[in-house]
């Protein structure tokens, strides 16, 4: 908000420059024109006539001096011209002043009287800038629908949080998909002094579904029209933003502009920066009516209380009905209707300076928004609007600068935005209070403190990072493959998709920057892009351990099928396993019995493997030493109870008993218990889960014609720590003993066998 004052200071400095530079120059020249107390003429002819000491060198010096004087005078004339142009343009072109004058050349109005009506009261003085109270809550409304828009909202919110100094209240008009994604995201983000309210966009469809709309935003692009009805009746003002907006300043500066509204001004908008509403883009181009260039609705300031009193709902409906009789449909969704209303009622709008909505679509005049801005400012605009279907691929002379700013927030670590607003009391958050209580009960001097703390760490989670579309089979036999991975296992995704045609639920442990790398990888893969039944859930990195069981729980929780196959990312299932498992759940009546169907696990040490297409082929490779039973040489106990000798000749499913350290890969109903979060990194994460399944009296049944093969890879960071760090192994042993004690307390006498089995193993 110091932009106006800075502009005035620049104007004063420039004026003083004009006054003093010529004076100093002439004083210098005058002083330099005396030699031995006698005046020296600047004219070479006079010098030759009156100076006996005239030489060729002094002649050249004086000519050079004359040239310099002329250059200074030309610079001064140019500076005077710039200042006079700046004065004639008014303060609108100086950063921080929110007024603008109109000109016929810009096409911003139909007549001088209309222009005067729009800009009345839009001027302000340097010393009278409105101030937002320190702890005043800023309300922001966003319409969001679908998977891709939810990703865009996150980047927008990051840019707002990065600069903000005030409490924020986001009002999200969202469909069921966006609500699920964003509710989980904000719940796990736990940003102080941020409140989120959701409004069902699907319930609002009937309010605008009667309006034909050609815009790519679809029906959701019309919902900003009904915000006066949708938002709480006691909410007086709100900033409305498109999802493709990026902030480069504190949103409080925009909120402060509300104080400048006067008279009947109820809408704050930036002029449209393309020629769309001028109707000259192509032959027979016929846009909706607008005032001059019209206004862009990517950023709107709404005075809701006044709009309600003016009967906004009736106003826009009548206008839309009238215009649709000739226009038939909207081309730019709500923007067309807003502009048609403003055309008839220009007094409604307060025109914002264009740097509050720099529109980066093709062929816009956005450069004019920052061309004359303060060169000492960090960013040449306050709000960037990627209002083109091309988004970051838009053609703009300065797009690289704005793209880099956008990418900064896209890859920015969202955990760093969990900072408190000191001096502003936050609303009581039950989840946050419970977390603080749990953490306070931990002993920080405990050598295993970091392990225990990880159990209570809340990881920011973005569900369905990519588009997901799948309806489970109607016969209630569908099975989802569940797995988790980090960036170093990304190469396994395509292979798994080729082996498993059914639905997949994956939890990926990534940083914000890695999430964007994954997005680019997935979008560049024909295999992954052809699959819409894979749910990718991003769990953002935090802490020093790999939260393997949290990741499994996230992937398990978000399946839509009645059964799930609990696998790992470095295993390839046999071809046809998906259909085989669907038949097996019927054959073994999994719907009505507590069974865990075991898929026998094998491994290869070869990076290039001719994958066996049948059990007979697998047995042959097993005999030749190309394949091995999984971990037979380092952890035999993990899969020995599967009884591979019996499996070789089995033709029907057979039951096996639980043994210590058993950790098979199983197919279970979706209501099975979660994994225990105390186990992180390497060790006992699956063992504990299988133990709990046994405690709940699950029956372990080995499938005779199913198999999966582990593919080789470099050792994980966590197994390296386990092998090299003695304290790591001590803490894992401690956590294991505590888990067994918890099992005994929870399941009573039946769980004592786990302690006995452990002691005997």
TrEMBL record:
GO terms for biological process: protein O-linked glycosylation via mannose. Residues 44-58 have a biased composition (Polar residues). Keywords: Glycoprotein, Glycosyltransferase, Golgi apparatus, Membrane, Multifunctional enzyme, Signal-anchor, Transferase, Transmembrane, Transmembrane helix. The keyword Transferase applies. GO terms for cellular component: Golgi membrane. Pathway: Protein modification; protein glycosylation. This is LARGE xylosyl- and glucuronyltransferase 1. It comes from Taeniopygia guttata (Zebra finch). The lineage of its organism: Eukaryota, Metazoa, Chordata, Craniata, Vertebrata. The gene is LARGE1.
């Amino acid at each position: 908000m110091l932009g106006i004052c800075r502009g005035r200071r620049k104007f004063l400095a420039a004026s003083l420059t004009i006054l003093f530079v010529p004076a100093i120059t002439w004083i210098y020249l005058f002083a330099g024109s005396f030699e031995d107390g006698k005046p020296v003429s600047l004219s070479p002819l006079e010098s030759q006539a009156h100076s006996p000491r005239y030489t060729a060198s002094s002649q050249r010096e004086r000519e050079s001096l004359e040239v310099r004087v002329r250059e200074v005078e030309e610079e001064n004339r140019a500076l005077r011209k710039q200042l006079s142009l700046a004065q004639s343009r008014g303060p609108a072109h100086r950063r921080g002043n929110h007024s603008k004058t109109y000109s016929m050349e810009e096409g911003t109005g139909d007549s001088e009287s209309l222009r005067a009506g729009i800009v009345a009261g839009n001027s302000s003085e340097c010393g009278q800038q409105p101030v937002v109270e320190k702890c005043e809550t800023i309300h922001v409304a966003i319409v969001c629908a679908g998977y891709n828009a939810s990703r865009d909202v996150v980047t927008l919110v990051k840019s707002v949080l990065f600069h903000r100094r005030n409490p924020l209240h986001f009002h999200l008009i969202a469909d069921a998909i966006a609500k699920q994604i964003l509710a989980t995201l904000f719940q796990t983000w736990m940003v102080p002094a941020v409140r989120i309210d959701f409004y069902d966009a699907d319930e609002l469809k009937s309010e605008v579904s009667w309006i034909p709309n050609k815009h790519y935003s679809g029906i959701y692009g019309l919902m900003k029209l009904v915000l006066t009805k949708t938002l709480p009746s006691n909410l007086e003002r709100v900033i409305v933003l498109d999802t493709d907006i990026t902030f480069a300043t504190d949103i409080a500066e925009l909120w402060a502009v509300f104080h400048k509204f006067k008279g009947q001004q109820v809408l704050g908008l930036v002029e449209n920066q393309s020629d769309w509403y001028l109707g000259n883009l192509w032959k027979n181009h016929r846009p909706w009516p607008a005032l001059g260039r019209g206004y862009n609705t990517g950023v709107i300031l709404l005075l809701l209380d006044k709009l309600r009193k003016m009967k906004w709902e009736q106003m826009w409906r009548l206008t839309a009905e009238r215009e649709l009789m000739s226009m038939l449909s909207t081309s730019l969704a709500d923007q067309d209707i807003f502009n048609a209303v403003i055309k008839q009622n220009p007094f409604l709008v307060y025109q914002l300076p264009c740097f509050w909505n720099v529109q980066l679509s093709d062929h816009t005049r956005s450069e004019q928004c920052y061309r004359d801005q303060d060169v000492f400012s960090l960013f040449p605009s306050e709000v960037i609007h990627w209002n083109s279907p091309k988004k970051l691929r838009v053609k703009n002379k300065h797009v690289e600068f704005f793209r880099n700013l956008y990418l900064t927030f896209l890859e920015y670590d969202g955990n760093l935005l969990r900072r408190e607003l000191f001096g502003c009391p936050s609303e009581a958050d039950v989840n946050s209070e419970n977390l603080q209580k749990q953490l306070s009960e931990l002993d920080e001097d405990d050598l295993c403190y970091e392990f225990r703390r990880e159990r209570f760490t809340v990881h920011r989670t973005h569900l369905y990072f990519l588009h997901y579309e799948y309806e489970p089979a109607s016969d209630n036999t569908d099975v989802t493959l569940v797995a988790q991975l980090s960036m170093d296992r990304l190469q396994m995704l395509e292979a798994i998709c080729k082996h498993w045609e059914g639905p997949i639920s994956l939890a990926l442990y990534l940083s914000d920057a890695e999430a964007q790398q994954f997005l680019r990888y997935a979008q560049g893969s024909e295999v992954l892009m052809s699959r819409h039944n894979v749910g990718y859930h991003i769990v953002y990195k935090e802490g020093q351990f790999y939260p393997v069981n949290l990741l499994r729980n996230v992937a398990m929780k978000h399946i839509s099928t009645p059964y799930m196959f609990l696998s790992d990312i470095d295993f390839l299932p046999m071809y046809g396993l998906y259909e085989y498992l669907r038949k097996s759940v019927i054959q073994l009546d999994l719907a009505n019995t507590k069974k865990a169907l075991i898929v026998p696990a094998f491994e290869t040490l070869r990076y290039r493997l001719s994958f066996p297409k049948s059990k007979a082929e697998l047995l042959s490779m097993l005999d030749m030493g190309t394949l091995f039973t999984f971990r037979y040489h380092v952890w035999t106990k993990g899969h020995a109870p599967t009884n591979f000798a019996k499996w070789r000749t089995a033709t029907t499913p057979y039951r096996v008993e639980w043994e210590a350290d058993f950790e098979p890969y199983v197919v279970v109903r979706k209501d099975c218990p979660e994994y225990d979060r105390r186990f992180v990194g390497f060790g006992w994460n699956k063992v504990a889960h299988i133990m709990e399944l046994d405690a709940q009296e699950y029956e372990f049944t080995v499938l005779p014609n199913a198999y999966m093969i582990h593919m080789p890879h470099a050792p994980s960071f966590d197994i390296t720590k386990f092998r090299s760090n003695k304290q790591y192994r001590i803490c894992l042993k401690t956590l294991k003993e505590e888990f067994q004690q918890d099992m005994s307390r929870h399941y009573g006498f039946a769980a004592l066998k786990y302690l006995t089995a452990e002691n005997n193993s």
